[in-house]
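re: ur question from earlier - yeah i can do the single chain one, its not a big deal. heres the input i used so u can compare w yours
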Amino acid sequence: MKKFTSTIALVILSFIALSCANDDNNNSDESNETNLLIGEWSMVDFTADLTNSFIFEGLPVNAQSDVEGSNFDYNIIFSEDNTLMTNGTYDITITTSVLGQIIDEQITSIPDAESSGMWSLEGNQLTTTGLSFSPVGNDTTDESIIGIGNISQLDETTLIITIDAEDNIPDDAELPDGSELNVTGDGTITFERIN
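and the output i got, formated as tokens:
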């Protein structure tokens, strides 16, 4: 069961590691949104509700994972040249339950979450490359890491990004032999503008 909960935690952290997506065809609005996005933002909230369907050691398992961030000291900078940089720390509490019973609660510190990469905005769809919040290998510029999410709110002070788990689970997530995984659900990351 420990290996099962560690696998859930790994998948959830991978989901968190990747962010940002939606669609709008108005170029004027898109240009305005791009201008609003440029600058430095500080994370103030992170939540996710995920349903994990597993085949683990030949048995089907369904689990619910609730993820909540805390102790935020994490910033992201979107530059005019479409580069991005992240730095800082935060904690994540992952509570996993099966059949309504909590089977695991993990608090993970994400230290020194430094990344750099690129970003693009098409309508409300924000796509990032090289962005990882994972506690293993936080300082990454790996362009194979792609985050997709929807900007659900963007104004002078607030940026809210919603994330679909299915769009952000890496294809190469390591699972125990004979295991299968399907993750559904969504997350929300809220930032406040610094400058």
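Confidence is low (pLDDT under 50) at residues 17-26, 132-141. not sure if urs matches, ping me
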